[in-house]
Amino acid sequence: MPEKKKIKERLFANRAKHALSELLDVHLKKDSLNKGSKLNEVVR
């Protein structure tokens, strides 16, 4: 039984890590989009 719990905990940790990296990805993409639009405004 303890083994199953360990596996579940590991799965949960991996899922959390994955969700976190996805959030960071989205945040970075938004950030770069904002920078891009600011650059476009400056060029105009």
Looking at this protein, list some descriptive labels.
44 residues; mainly alpha
Walk me through the structure:
It is a single chain. This protein is 95% helix and 0% strand. The protein is built from 1 helix and no strands. It has one helix at 2-43. It starts with a helix and ends with a helix.
Give the helices and strands, then pairings.
Layout: H1 2-43
Structure, briefly:
This protein has one helix at residues 2-43. By secondary structure, it is mainly α.
- The mean pLDDT is 86
Helix/strand/pairing class, anyone?
mainly alpha
Number of strands: 0
Gyration radius over CA: 19 Å
Tell me about the biggest sheet?
Answer: none
Span of the ends, CA to CA: 65 Å
Gross geometry: rod-shaped
Low-pLDDT regions: none
Determine the fraction of residues in helical runs and give it as a percent range: over 70%
Order of helices and strands: H
H/I helix tally: 1
Report the portion of residues in β strands. under 5%
